[in-house]
């Protein structure tokens, strides 16, 4: 009888630690995956004659990755290239931990302590987000796949730390003798290489377009309300955006992130759309603190978003680096580097 109870308890312990281990591994692997890839689309994969599962499951999710790398700007990395590199390495670390957990490598001595350390760092960052921005928006823990507020993410990480601590208690360090040396090395190489292959660092180094053309901003002051500051004098990052444009929301999110860490950079938004659309725009972009006006003259707004040397509409967001009513540079949000903007302001 005692022997039977001992076997049952041993089986229960083995089952518990295996389920916890697989759960932790799955969370880390999915977290890394969700920041890079768009994910599986059942309808497109099975009902399209030309597309398949792999096309959609492993298509880069630009929105998710952009949001994650811009997080590092908010943490104080004042350079887009370095922020992008840090984001890729953070994804690589998540991927490596997930694989190390899956293959049960160096659990008690390395992998589980590293898991607890990384989750603790995430909690510190989330507490910072709570203090600065409040418990609003999506923390981005799982890209665009699973929405979580910062407080929800903190509780999730606390549960994962608890599971890791329990595993340290339950698990004896298990290594495969024939793969003890080379398997962790391969895992590390794969984890580091994947984000760099999927999102090359060269994508973060896009030159800003030099324009040096005059822009007439007087129409902004012939309507009410008009800008409270004179944008015709001095240097400004002036962005013309539509309230319903997804790329404008992304641009506004990035600009507010840069502005939060660099309040000395003067920025201004000229927004087009209906007043009822403003709340949703600022909810998604978090950029309400940046000075702005709602410009309702659609014809004049379209003129502002045309390239000065082109008859064709260039679209929104139109982001201009203006110096005394001269557009010196024009950029997309992929060309907004805090370090470069600061250097331009100081020229």
Give the topology string: H per helix, E per strand.
Answer: HHHHHHHHEEHEHEHEEH
Instruction: Report the sheet with the most strands, covering strand number, pairing sense and barrel closure.
Output: 6 strands, mixed
Fraction of residues in helices? 40-55%
Given the C-alpha coordinates, what overall shape results?
Answer: elongated
Read across the widest sheet, the strand sequence of neighbours is: 1-6-5-2-3-4
Structural class: alpha/beta
As for the number of domains, it is 2
- Give me the number of helical elements: 12
Uncertain residue ranges: 308-313
Beta-strand percentage?
5-15%
Give the N-to-C terminal Cα separation. 84 Å
Whole-number radius of gyration? 25 Å
Arithmetic mean pLDDT: 86
- Tell me how many strands there are: 6
Topology:
Blueprint: H1 2-34, H2 42-47, H3 53-57, H4 62-74, H5 80-102, H6 107-133, H7 150-170, H8 182-198, E1 209-214, E2 235-242, H9 246-261, E3 267-272, H10 278-285, E4 292-294, H11 298-304, E5 318-323, E6 326-331, H12 338-346
Parallel strand pairs: 2-3, 3-4
Antiparallel strand pairs: 1-6, 2-5, 5-6
Helix pairs in contact: 1-5, 1-7, 4-5, 4-9, 5-8, 6-7, 9-10
Report a brief summary of the structure:
The chain is built from twelve helices and six strands.
Question: What attributes characterize this protein structure?
Answer:
alpha/beta; 6-stranded mixed β-sheet; 347 residues; 2 domains
Summarize the structure in words.
This protein folds into 2 domains: 2-203, no CATH class; 207-346, Glutaredoxin, CATH 3.40.30. Strands 1-6-5-2-3-4 form a 6-stranded mixed sheet, sandwiched between helices. The protein has 12 helices and 6 strands. Helix 5 (80-102) runs antiparallel to helix 8. The relative contact order is 0.12. The chain is an alpha/beta fold and 347 residues long. Residues 308-313 have low confidence and may be disordered. It has helices at residues 2-34, 42-47, 53-57, 62-74, 80-102, 107-133, 150-170, 182-198, 246-261, 278-285, 298-304, 338-346, and strands at 209-214, 235-242, 267-272, 292-294, 318-323, 326-331.
